[in-house]
Recover the amino acids of this structure.
């Protein structure tokens, strides 16, 4: 009987110590002179990085009643903030003036891979093909003029491949095929120049 009573007393003492520890860890109200528990957070300023105050119910009500988010801002600053707030404070630009980026900015997350299952890759901007990376700018330009798809070109190209492509393009844009069309004639001149340039590059 004595042992059971001693065990019960130990349990109650442990619970009391645990409760006392919890009370000692509780945050006190940040209002000067208040000893109540500070259970209610309130922002120190409009900037989240400035942290929070913790008040009791009485003092958080007082604080909220006097809280002014725009305190210290001019009328122009308030108006600008409100305009930006409608867009979530994200950057904006006039139509047609968006800065070009190598990778598109993506606001969608596909954590479950649902879009990937149907072949949509988020944030995957167009990568340069191996041919584009290996060719000199003038060679790239000449091959594009000859109608090569650089995404499908496998280097090194053979002279026979270039010649075959040239024949196909020359036939397509020959004046006889296009009824003497001046635009086709000018395009054929460019094709001839591109072919001559590629021949001079030593393709075998």
């Amino acid at each position: 009987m004595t042992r059971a009573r001693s065990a019960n007393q130990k349990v109650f003492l442990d619970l009391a110590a645990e409760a006392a520890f919890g009370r000692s860890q509780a945050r006190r109200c940040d209002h000067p002179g208040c000893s109540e528990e500070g259970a209610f957070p309130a922002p120190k300023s409009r900037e989240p990085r400035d942290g929070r105050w913790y008040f009791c119910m009485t003092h958080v009500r007082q604080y909220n009643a006097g809280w002014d988010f725009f305190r210290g801002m001019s009328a122009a600053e308030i108006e600008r903030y409100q305009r930006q707030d409608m867009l979530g404070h994200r950057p904006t630009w006039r139509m047609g003036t968006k800065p070009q980026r190598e990778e598109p900015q993506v606001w969608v997350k596909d954590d479950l891979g649902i879009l990937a299952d149907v072949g949509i890759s988020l944030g995957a901007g167009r990568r340069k093909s191996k041919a584009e990376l290996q060719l000199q700018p003038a060679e790239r330009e000449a091959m594009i003029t000859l109608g090569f798809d650089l995404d499908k070109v496998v280097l090194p190209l053979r002279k026979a491949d270039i010649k075959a492509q040239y024949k196909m393009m020359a036939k397509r844009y020959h004046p006889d095929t296009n009824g003497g069309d001046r635009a086709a004639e000018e395009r054929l001149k460019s094709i001839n120049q591109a072919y001559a340039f590629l021949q001079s590059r030593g393709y075998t």
